[in-house]
Design brief:
It contains eleven helices and twelve strands. It is 35% helix and 18% strand. Helix 8 runs antiparallel to helix 10. With 341 residues, it is an alpha/beta fold. A hairpin with a 4-residue loop joins strand 10 and strand 11.
Length: 341
Amino acid sequence: MSTQVFILCDKPKDANLIVISFRGTEPFDADDWITDFDYSWYEIPKLGKVHMGFLEALGLGSRAKASTFHEQLFMNNQNFTKLENDATIAPSESSESSTMFSDSDAHSVSDQSPESDRPNDTGSKKFKLDMPERTAYYVVRSKLKRLLNEHKDAKFVVTGHSLGGALAILFPTVLVLHEEMNVMERLLGIYTYGQPRVGNRQLGRFMEAHLEHPVPKYFRVVYSNDLVPRLPYDNKTFLFKHFGICQYYNSLYVEQNVDEEPNRNYFGLRFLIPLYLNAGWELIRSFTMGHMYGAEYEECWESVVLRVLGLFLPGISAHSPVDYVNSVRLGTERSTQMSSF
């Protein structure tokens, strides 16, 4: 219910680019944090094991009743596709278990009130889907298809930070699962920032076949000691694995392409001292960014407080979007390849 998505086109007519951006974890949203720290997985045949909390955040099932994942991923998909492609469907009576879509919708994914509470637009086609309200994936897919149909030459990019990054890679994953190849052919790229792991090695191999040819389309940006990309753990217990190209930035905003970020499970004595030294350096730097690079880089007091917390738990402050924005804008590429640990 808390999933939020921002969708834009670069031009109102004849757009070339459509951007789908999933919002990340909100600091005071309990649902987001419960999703992040749920390490359970749901196994999808031929696809692999997928983080159950992230699937739920896309509206593809409920952890309270595991059978709903199969219903949302497979059974309801057939009914929805028929509705989605039928331009002659007439409005029907509203019900609490139905979700409404409109060709002229501009509401957020979580804003799905009954039809009786909405203004009636006689110039738009509306249809209803008899399924639970938590259907972020289906709403975004429907909107994307309409935009791609409207802008014939447009391609789309999916992006997100933190939890939003996990949803950004899972959205095209489910598109592939549903054999939406006409949509996937117009995918320009996936860019995630501080993204946690979303599935096992089988999932990675499945998606690499669709995202690496003819050119790589999936780029996972990781800043320094950010804790979140190192969760859930990549070990024999949890089995979660990253895939795709990792663009790793150190604390000096120097970029290197690696297979895996250093200290991939965020523990080990040899990393302990560098973790705290980096946290101290980032706090000191926060007071000088405005002087070094201009007023637009000056950090707010909330960011400084977060860096103070990073002195006690290094890796928390490194997850801030501030460092990811700075990495992209100020980053320089190192010519030598960095070895991963």
